[in-house]
Design brief:
One of its GO terms (biological process) is regulation of translational termination. Keywords: Cytoplasm, GTP-binding, Nucleotide-binding, Protein biosynthesis. One of its GO terms (molecular function) is translation release factor activity, codon nonspecific. Its main location: cytoplasm. The structure is a single chain. The protein has 525 residues and is α+β, with helices and mostly antiparallel strands. The chain is 25% helix and 29% strand. It has 12 helices and 31 strands. Strand 12 and strand 13 form a beta hairpin. Helix 10 crosses helix 11. The radius of gyration is 25 Å and the shape is globular. Bound molecules: guanosine-5',3'-tetraphosphate (G4P). Guanosine-5',3'-tetraphosphate binds next to helix 2.
Amino acid sequence: MDKNELAKEVAQRRTFAIISHPDAGKTTITEQLLLFGGVIREAGTVKGKKSGHFAKSDWMEIEKQRGISVTSSVLQFDYHGKRINILDTPGHEDFSEDTYRTLMAVDAAVMVIDSAKGIEAQTKKLFKVVKKRGIPIFTFMNKLDRDGREPLDLIAELEELLGIEGYAMNWPIGSGKVLEGLYDRKNHRIERYRPATEDQRFAALDADGKLPADDPIAKESTYRAALDDIELLDDAGNQFSEEKILRGDQTPVFFGSALTNFGVETFLDSFVDMAPEPSAKKTVGGDEVAPTTDRFSGFVFKIQANMNPAHRDRIAFVRIVSGAFERGMDVTLNRTGKTIRLSNSTEFMADSRETVNTAVAGDIVGLYDTGNFQIGDTIYAGKGAVEFEPLPQFTPELFMRVTAKNVMKQKSFHKGMQQLVQEGAVQLYRTYTTNEYILGAVGQLQFEVFKFRMLNEYNSEVEMTTIGSRTARWIDPEQLDEKMSSSRNLLVKDIHDQPLFLFENAFAMRWFQDKYPDVKLTAKL
Ligand code: G4P
């Protein structure tokens, strides 16, 4: 691919993830986006919670058993001259580090909020990770077809709970049973909820931002209330700032209803317009690799094992940072210096796996892996080593003691343990003096996947006893005195032999800090 062609292709990419609390409507909106992208023809094909659609795919057994998506997948479609990559993140309560890492591979995020519930726990956690990256965050306030909270409250909550400015791109006229439409500030029009014909879907506003007096919506009290709100927003609300949006300091807010496909197209059009192209990425040396650099480079952000149990395959998901990927190309794996031929690649669509031949910066490719790759690995083509900054580590919140059930099978236990930990499936700790294994995760599901894979891939049955939810804090080894450890603040070490405490709760941590005021405790991301 020549330089001009590469630049043109890269400029078309828009790569993002949708973050939300379970049930806010992430799957429903994803389906609507896929409909607009022409990938699927009817809603309900991506996830049929109740229809058992998973039986059709060959994902992990555990997924089938629980009827949820364990790991993120990638959806790709073309829309208005742009190639959209949506990196899906598990929509289940039991999410995992995979979800966090997926957010390291996107250039923007869409936050879906249930307008009746406002900002919920999981949204808050995921938001924090995205915010730290300083990438644009677009907000979709969903379920407008139901009675929800006051729109002004929802906007205020963004600032109060998340510390991000909200700028309403459009404003609901009524909600639930009396939903009439959206006042579109950006496009200077009203979008009707129930237009008699498609031609009547949009109504233009006059120079004063008003509908003609004889328009049926103009007669509604909800319309007048919306105008009052808009006036308030114009006078006292946040000023629209593209700069702030690109830095992630302001979020454009779109109202709508994914289920009734209301406001979704307006959202998508604005998103495609405003979302950034693939960004450059820093190397450990501090250089930036621009996406249009003609040399291919990328990093592994996720490894998914056993997508097809019959083949025992693992897929390493690579975010392309620069250049173009071509099937059969040779790349160097920076960590080992080994050359690898990338001949087997797959790309993930909503319903099928299709072999990808070319992909450019911004795209995600799934590579069949026979155990070469680890999470965070950099791969590059050509001469001159490239190593991207390591992926951040996330502070685990749940802990388990783990032992091999069969003492005769220690070898496979240790092998499986080592490989799965390297892969980043779970975090491994050992008690400080007795060296017992303790696993840490951000979601319960990670333990279940770990147990399942130990048995299925390493033939090792593991015994796990829960320690429960703990707050992990690292301590400078210089300041450590083993006497500081107690059952309320268990002392362990991580895989780099760094000491940390697992505090039973916030109270135990406060007690510790009061007792040892000079000791500095640190959390990871
Ligand atoms: P998730 O992926 O974020 O977990 O949410 P999902 O899209 O599965 O939506 C959760 C529930 O909310 C679903 O209902 C879905 O139909 C509903 N929903 C999504 N968007 C809207 C909306 O704009 N308005 C209304 N009223 N409902 C919405 P469910 O009862 O769990 O499943 P289903 O049997 O209806 O599919």
